[in-house]
Amino acid sequence: MSKKIGLLLAWLLLHLHVYAQVQAVEQQFTVAQDGSGDFRTIQEAVNAVRDHSQVRATINVKSGTYREKLVIPAWKKNITLIGESAEHTVISNNDYSGKDFPNRDFTGNAKFSTYTSYTVLVQANDCTLQNLTIENTAGRVGQAVALATEGDRIEVYNCRILGNQDTLYTSKDGRNFYKDCLITGTTDFIFGEATAVFQNCTIRSLTNSYITAASTTREQAYGYVFFNCKLTANDEATKVYLGRPWRPFAKTVFIDTEMGSHIVKEGWDPWKGDNMFPEKEKTVFYAEYNSTGPGANADARAAWSIQLTARHREKYTLENILSGWVPGKKLRLQPSGIPDTSFSVKGSYRHEITRHPNVRMADSTLPASIQVIRNVLYRTTPDGKKLLLDIYRPKRKGKTPQPAVLMVHGGGWRSGDRTHNNTLARKLAAKGYVCITADYRLSTHALYPAAVHDLKAAVRWIRSTAPGIDTARIAILGFSAGGELAAFVGATNGDPKFEGIDREQDASSAVQAVIDIDGTLAFIHPESGEGDDSKSISAATYWFGYPKAERPDLWNEASPLTHVSARTPPFLFINSSVDRMHAGREDFIKKLNTFGTYSEVRTFADAPHTFMFFDPWFEPTLATIHGFLDRVFGQAATAHR
User: Fold this and answer.
1) How far apart are CA 536 and CA 554, in angstroms?
2) Strand ranges (DSSP E) for 535-632?
3) Tens of pLDDT along 503-549?
4) CA 81 to CA 149: how far, in whole Å?
5) What is the separation of C-alpha 125 from the centre of its chain, rounded to a whole number of angstroms?
6) pLDDT at 3
7) Which residues does residue 162 pair with via DSSP β-bridges, in sequence order?
């Protein structure tokens, strides 16, 4: 049984890398009722989208009337739902408040309420709806929602949102953007708490009543804002108010809006019949700017409403209203918060042994001469994460301060942990160095440059806190992504830009030597393939939050090659046979040479990227590091030997 479990675990680890690559490919689905697509219902397509994906999934919906009660749950973010045409791609339902459930719902209720009457409910962030009709056909039976939104950064383009009372419910405190849409209804048919912008939309009243019923909170700077919209009406609608406040601090503004004659001269209603919140007109913000058409009556508006000045109007930009979010602009990928365990030393061994039968794990025996101090807190980050390190130090026979080596693990900036450097730390410590293996924030938790801030904080901690350290002889060593980080820390010696704003120690973060083991020196370089595959998201893209094409400035800034200066210390480059892993190395060395800075290169022919963990390469790697540090630091460790 144990053998079967071991084989199963090996299989899972071997396929994690493949799974990660699959995760990075954008999903595309087609929905068609005639069976010509991937699914016959929209809900089936939504269910097929990967949970918590940072990659956008596009669902193309063929023409037809889809009688569904569609839910895009919170864990199905980054979905774009595109209909073949707004007139002929229809999502329809007819639930309404008070209608009997065929079965009790999860709350135990036997009837639908306003909040459960929706035709479409979008709970996820970063979803887009386009070229659709979303309708609630229950009729004039009370509250019957067509579209309800609970997520943040919801975009709706060229959609027809059709209903009667409570057609569009912008629930919770997210941000919505509607452009070129038709929204129809009777009473309070645009209502809710969210901050929402309506641009170039037609708002059609079907009977005498109220268009909006915002429930904006006191803390929100903006509520509903209408730009360049048209307010129209059916023949029976002759007395319609722009809005009434559902809650005391409701905010609704119409800018450059054409208003039909159905809009009453007062414009706004205070909802006096609301006994729970009387005198709401004292706290609301109802305003207009440059309203036109027969319904525009600035002089006759309710005394407690506002006509914006030109200066006040200037504040109404999309970026201001939507708190920095500009719809249509690419967003920075955000950390998933889910640990990535795809990279491990044992997993790499199982992978490499199939191609290199002579590979064997390096001897990890702890030398008797070494003392280990584990789980030392070196930093609490601004977001509350506690970062730990382990210290491997020679059992000192004297009080002579010893040189230190900070070791940075690899894993694509999103996987791995400090234990990956245990073996090298033990063996190097036996040669007279205090070796410190540290964790740092991965891209699953925080984006660039958080990891840089963490590692510079680790150097400061070593210099100011770790006992017995020769503070004039501190090196940083890293493998793969850790090699890039080590090179970056060294290349930016003395640059305050990368220290972070929450320095816990006043000590310097400068290092006196760098060992870069197969870590790239340049992300945008002829030798680098990082981010070149348009069909997948690279590890660097996850770290930066942007593809290379969108933010080349950020990719260049994060390249160690960009920052080489006279303050950059001596470098040792140890490389495998995988050329792209040392992209920019020769250019880096040329820059070092211009400043007279020492460097060495050691390349292992036919060695895989993960060579440093395995023999026959581990021992010569160890010897190369020791020789370099002895040369750079002088006879640094002779006192111990």
Assistant:
1) 19
2) 571-575, 599-603, 614-615
3) 666 799 999 999 999 999 999 998 887 766 554 578 999 999 988 88
4) 14
5) 11
6) 46
7) 135
- For the stretch 62-120, pLDDT in tens is 999 999 999 999 999 999 999 999 999 999 999 999 998 776 555 567 889 999 999 99
**Amino acid in the structure at residue 258:** E
At 390, list the tokens.
């382990």
User: Residue 562's CB: how many other CB atoms inside 10 A?
Assistant: 18
Longest Cα–Cα distance of the chain, Å, equals 97
Q: Which residues are catalytic?
A: 188
Strand partners, 203: 183, 231
Tokens standing for 325? Answer: 């979010």
Inter-residue contact 160 to 114 (CB < 8 Å): no
At 610, list the tokens.
């993960």
Across residues 606-630, what is the average pLDDT?
97
**Contact predicate 180/157, CB 8 Å:** yes
Domains recognised in the chain with CATH numbers: 56-321 (2.160.20.10), 362-633 (3.40.50.1820)
Cα–Cα distance measured from residue 548 to residue 20, given in angstroms and rounded to the nearest whole number: 19
Classify residue 24 as left (phi > 0), alpha (psi -120 to 50) or beta.
alpha
Strand positions, DSSP E, 111-223: 120-122, 128-130, 133-136, 147-149, 154-157, 160-162, 168-170, 175-179, 182-185, 190-192, 195-199, 202-205, 210-214
C-alpha dihedral sign at 408, 411, 413, 419: negative
Q: Which of 506, 321, 473 is nearest to 400 (CA)?
A: 473
The answer to whether residues 415 and 343 touch, using CB atoms and an 8 Å cutoff, is yes
Q: How far apart are the first and last CA of the chain?
A: 48
CA angle at residue 83 from 336 to 188, to 5 degrees? Answer: 80
The pLDDT tens digits for 305-329 are 999 999 999 999 998 999 988 898 7
Q: Give the position of tokens 């949102």.
A: 161
Residue 293: Cβ within 10 Å count? 14
Residues 6+ apart with CB under 8 A from 5: none
Tokens of 324: 């920095």
| Total residues belonging to the chain | 641
Which residues lie across from 376 on neighbouring strands?
389
Give tens-digit pLDDT for 207-232. Answer: 999 999 999 999 999 999 999 999 99
Give the mean model confidence (pLDDT) for residues 190-202: 97
Q: Render the burial of 386-407: b for 16+ CB within 10 Å, e for the rest.
A: ebebbbbbbeeeeeebbbbbbb
Work out the number of other CB atoms within 10 angstroms of the CB of residue 275: 6
